[in-house]
From TrEMBL:
InterPro entries: CRAL-TRIO_dom, CRAL-TRIO_dom_sf, CRAL/TRIO_N_dom, CRAL/TRIO_N_dom_sf
Family annotation (Pfam families): CRAL_TRIO, CRAL_TRIO_N
Ranges of residues in domain CRAL-TRIO: 81-252
Protein name stated in the entry: CRAL-TRIO domain-containing protein
Protein's organism: Trapa incisa
Gene3D superfamilies, A to Z: CRAL-TRIO lipid binding domain
């Protein structure tokens, strides 16, 4: 649906359908749109190529998923004890480093160095959803108010340092996380910047790129060499993730050159301190015992056929690369390991 008039008509039709929603779904819908229902409907329409019936089904299914899994209360469920949450943060490298000059949050992701090996799958999924909800309920409304205009998307910078070949034991978890995003948080990223890509990424990119939808391809920029100059076109130096600062662009998240307060992946970083304290405070407000341990169990949605096909293609390509180097076990014994999948990128 190319013309603006057709898109406006589709959005108006979609809006009239959503006016019929009531009960728990209406409550969840209000949490999702945060006072901007029309902009929210446009996101779901984009995700379904402006097909109103498909976008409507997608949003209703998402609201049902939220209701069934009590997503509205997930920001009252801190991961405790703090040592466990620190272990999650040390192995699921995600953080907010600042804002672009247009006010979009800058979210950094350490794709290559995330290991997801210090907690159960449920804790990593819980943490991911909590960051999504904090972004949508706190960070984006803050940016909207500060910059005086609606801001509903972010910029993501994906650090590929450390991305290596392995037995692909993280693809299932990362596919789960990405499927949750695809079906419940669509079109939340304005641009993906991929930095420090190793050779293995280039090999996979050749087979993944043609399989991506055109709207996704348009969002992705692969930056070779030092990415600082390119990123400084859209943000100030203070908003750059720690792995993009300086001419040498140090990338290892635990580099001696980076303190924990500068490392946006660290629990000691200001963003993660604010997020964790916010969740603990919300828990107290609803009389939820902070000391109660145990992860939130969320129903994992099934990936859509195209998403599953891309994941399978990536897995086959990794195995092919392993075979060409003397077998996958030979690659692992050489110290080559992959701690992510295509799903953590897109």
């Amino acid at each position: 649906m190319g013309s603006l008039s057709n898109q406006d008509s589709a959005t108006t039709h979609f809006q009239s359908l959503m006016e019929e929603v009531d009960g728990p779904l209406k409550s969840e819908y209000e949490i999702v749109h945060q006072g901007y229902p029309r902009e929210t409907l446009v996101r779901f329409l984009k995700a379904r190529d402006w097909n109103v019936a498909r976008a409507h089904k997608m949003l209703i299914d998402s609201l049902k998923w939220r209701t069934q899994n009590d997503i509205k209360s997930i920001l009252t469920r801190p991961i405790v004890p703090a040592d466990l949450y620190r272990a999650v943060r040390d192995t699921q490298l995600v953080g907010l480093s600042g804002f672009t000059r247009l006010g979009r949050p800058v979210i950094a992701i350490g794709v290559g160095l995330s290991t997801y090996d210090k907690a159960s799958v449920n804790y990593y999924v819980q943490s991911h959803i909590q960051m999504n909800e904090y972004r949508d309920r706190v960070v984006l409304p803050y940016a909207t108010k500060k910059y005086g205009r609606y801001i509903g998307t972010c910029v993501k910078i994906l650090d590929m340092t450390g991305l290596k070949l392995s037995a692909l034991n993280q693809i299932k978890l990362l596919t789960t996380i990405s499927t949750i995003d695809d079906l419940n948080y669509p079109e939340k990223t304005e641009t993906y910047y991929i930095v420090n890509p190793p050779r293995i990424f280039s090999a996979c990119w050749k087979v993944v790129n043609p399989l991506l939808q055109e709207r996704t391809r348009r969002k992705i920029q692969v930056l070779h060499g030092c990415p600082t100059d390119e990123l400084l076109k859209i943000m100030d130096y203070s908003s750059l993730p720690h792995f993009c600062r300086g001419e040498s662009s140090p990338s290892s998240y635990d580099s001696d050159n980076v303190t924990s307060s500068d490392d946006c992946f660290s629990l000691d970083h200001n963003f993660h301190q604010q997020l964790y304290n916010y969740i603990k405070q919300q828990a107290l407000l609803v009389d939820s015992p902070v000391v109660k341990q145990g992860s939130v169990h969320v129903t994992f949605p099934q990936p859509e056929p195209q998403e599953a096909s891309i994941a399978q293609t990536i897995e086959s390509e990794f195995h092919r690369l392993g075979d060409s180097k003397g077998g996958i076990m030979g690659m692992i014994s050489s110290g080559l390991k992959v701690n992510g999948s295509w799903k953590s990128l897109f």
